[in-house]
Amino acid sequence: MKNFLIAPSILSANFASLGQEVDAVLAAGADVIHFDVMDNHYVPNLTIGPMICKALRDHGVTAPIDVHLMVRPVDHMINEFAKAGATMITFHAEASDHVDRSLQLIKEHGLKAGLVFNPATPLHHLDYVMDKLDMILLMSVNPGFGGQSFIPATLQKLRDVRKLIDASGRDIILEIDGGVKVDNIREIAEAGADMFVAGSAIYGQADYKKVIDEMRSELEKANV
Ligand SMILES: O=C(CO)[C@@H](O)[C@H](O)COP(=O)(O)O
Predict the structure, then answer these.
(1) 23 is in an annotated binding site
(2) Per residue in 165-187, pLDDT tens?
């Protein structure tokens, strides 16, 4: 089976006990912690910053932390999250004045770097930077909130990006975020995704292990 990664989004966790919420999804079999950073400027919501990322590291979290920056500008936050213990950092191309420089900055910190595309953002931002990407994150909802429905047009976009990645010959993770559930994860995998962010589908259930196991068993059936 392909190396699929399941990344619970802590946006849907209980922030009053975040350390335990992260421990619980990792014990339940999650591969990566997805960390949504919103600034009430690039997106109409305000969430968590580098202090919380560092607090999770200090709490003892050793799993990869995937920081999704929904902020404008991005470079200062890249530096702060690198210090705070991020493993990978993605940002929206239109939120950076200098996309190539921001990608380089992430790489200089020794972290995985990626670009994020909103549902209607065209893929031309990939031109000329494929060689600097470790990940590409496609949003399958408009960013800002958990609990939205998967936008079906994203399936074709996944197929298009999968072709670009395969043609590049590079080992770039294709990440999908928004409305991922047990009942659509297989189709999303078949469209080309490797890494699956799921917030409400996991944290909205009492038994995190049961959902993650169900997701994995759907992924095992994927024809890829
Ligand atoms: O970045 C975002 C929203 O902007 C996501 O990471 C959501 O947190 C995903 O939540 P669900 O759609 O899985 O509930």
Answers:
(1) no
(2) 999 999 999 999 999 999 999 99
pTM for the structure as a whole: 0.97
Asked if residues 219 and 1 have their Cβ atoms less than 8 Å apart, the reply is yes
Judged against a pLDDT cut of 90, whether residue 1 lies above it is answered with no
CA 178 – ligand 1 centroid, Å: 5
> In 10 A of CB 206, how many CB atoms?
6
Q: What is the Cα 69 distance to its own chain's centre?
A: 10
Report whether residue 204 contacts ligand 1, using a CB cutoff of 6 Å. Answer: no
CB atoms within 10 A of CB 207: 11
SS3 at position 69: strand
Q: Is 19 annotated as a binding residue?
A: no
The count of C-alpha atoms lying within 13 angstroms of the C-alpha of 16, restricted to the half-sphere facing its C-beta, is 0
| DSSP H or E stretch at residue 195 | strand 195-198
> What number does CATH give the domain 5-220?
3.20.20.70
Nearest Cα to 182, choosing from 213, 224, 138?
A: 213
Which residue is associated with the tokens 């000329």?
A: 128
Query: CB–CB of 148/141 below 8 Å?
Result: yes
- In 10 A of CB 154, how many CB atoms? 23
What is the interface pTM, i.e. ipTM, of the complex? 0.98
